[in-house]
Task: inverse folding
């Protein structure tokens, strides 16, 4: 009994005449199927030698990229020629950190940092602050460039903060003046002078400096307190100077003229935000100057 063609294990699926000898990859000039053993062998044959990295291999031409290899080698020589500093082994590697700080440009001592003191400062220069900053920078391994940039930024922020504080103090002073002028009316100047006289008599220089530095010298509550002190001590000889008397007619005339000059816009423009206040203040001044007419 004969077997049908292709019925054996060896011949199953084989077409007669296909692949007449030779390398399977060369049969009919076609590439072997992907993933096959023949394809693997072919890839090894077409790939770069083991001494040439894949990135320097031209797969189409099957040759090395000589120029790229040359440039890469030059860069490697430059890198290896530089001074090499081992990275510290950990946070506890004090010797390693000191070596690293020195290699990255930290000077030998804090005084060697090149910090320039700014000129025309609106505030008193902080000598102790600069010394502390130098010490801090050295302890943390900062180089000269880093330290200079950080310190310049710090000083700039201090100046900006001071300028903003001054602006707020000026605004606070104007608001306090308006509030007390509305409260005291024509007696405003006399009340303030009375408070100043009491302050000069009973306060020490440190307290006066404190009022200026904190802005409390512009706080209406502080001013009222010193007005009250002046009023209560008015008859005692310990109060320097004499208590201001009520303004006379000449003083009132000058006050009216000055008030009209400073508040012309508010007085005659009904849409002005301070129109009502200005009109009321003018009435108080006129009532004080002409009390009979007010009655």
Result:
């Amino acid at each position: 009994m004969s077997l049908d063609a292709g019925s054996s294990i060896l011949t199953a699926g084989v077409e007669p005449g296909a692949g007449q000898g030779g390398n399977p990859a060369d049969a009919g000039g076609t590439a072997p199927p992907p993933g096959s053993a023949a394809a693997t062998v072919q890839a090894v044959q077409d790939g770069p030698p083991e001494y040439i990295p894949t990135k320097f291999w031209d797969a189409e031409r099957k040759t090395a990229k000589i120029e790229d290899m040359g440039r890469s080698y030059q860069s490697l020589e430059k890198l290896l020629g530089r001074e090499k500093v081992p990275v510290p082994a950990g946070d506890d590697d004090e010797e390693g950190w000191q070596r690293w700080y020195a290699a990255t440009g930290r000077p030998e001592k804090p005084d060697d940092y090149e910090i320039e003191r700014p000129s025309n400062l609106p505030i008193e220069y902080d000598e102790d602050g600069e010394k502390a900053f130098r010490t801090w920078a050295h302890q943390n391994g900062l180089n000269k460039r880093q330290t200079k940039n950080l310190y310049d930024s710090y000083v700039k922020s201090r100046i900006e903060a001071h300028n903003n504080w001054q602006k707020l103090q000026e605004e606070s002073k104007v608001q306090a003046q308006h509030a007390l002028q509305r409260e005291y009316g024509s007696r405003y100047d006399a009340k303030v002078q009375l408070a100043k006289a009491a302050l000069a008599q009973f306060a020490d220089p440190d307290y006066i400096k404190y009022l200026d530095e904190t802005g409390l010298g512009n706080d209406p509550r502080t001013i009222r307190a010193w007005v009250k002190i002046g009023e209560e001590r008015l008859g005692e000889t310990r109060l320097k100077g004499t208590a201001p008397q009520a303004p006379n007619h000449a003083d009132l005339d000058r006050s009216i003229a000055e008030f009209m000059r400073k508040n012309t816009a508010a007085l005659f423009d009904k849409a002005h935000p301070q129109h009502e206040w200005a009109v009321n203040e003018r009435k108080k001044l006129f009532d004080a100057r002409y009390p009979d007419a007010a009655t």
